Amino acid sequence: EAGVTQFPSHSVIEKGQTVTLRCDPISGHDNLYWYRRVMGKEIKFLLHFVKESKQDESGMPNNRFLAERTGGTYSTLKVQPAELEDSGVYFCASSQGRTSGEFFGPGTRLTVL
Amino acid sequence: AQKITQTQPGMFVQEKEAVTLDCTYDTSDQSYGLFWYKQPSSGEMIFLIYQGSYDEQNATEGRYSLNFQKARKSANLVISASQLGDSAMYFCAMRDPAYSGAGSYQLTFGKGTKLSVIP
Question: What percent of chain B stands above pLDDT 70?
Fold first, then answer.
């Protein structure tokens, strides 16, 4: 069974540009999460989808971040326009239930210059 | 508010020895879940073990066990018979609430402990 996949693995963009990150969860997992780790800090929650609905987006830093999960399958996270402080590793995770651990993807390392 | 504290930025352990990674948490809720993840140098996050707040037995998964002391709000990870491949960052995390239908499902992470296994 394929795990959670993320694309791209690395992205280097200039301040002001737009970047879109993609996550493909494990097949059949209704829960999809986005997390971010800025260098030297804790991994922080961004948002949570249940199927195609946003269950909780309290962690989204501002309106430059837009997440979608059309059809309840893969998800995209768009940053527009990107700022220097957006640099970090963006993790996607999926799970079936509340008591199971999330399965994380390998992350996308975003560098904003 | 939830908070996870991992007081050990780095730990060293001799191969084949056991090691305990500390984690304390702060929550006012009665229902919650505790998790440990491993992040090797390759970057992926690997789920290791889960403990529910109402579970009476400490969770175990192979060489991993979770020393859950609810009154002290601690959920230490014990790795027995350390192997070189155990060298990685280890993150403690909490989901609150674990069992109720309301609230957020998000995980709150600690800052992590970097474990180095010495041959």
Answer: 92
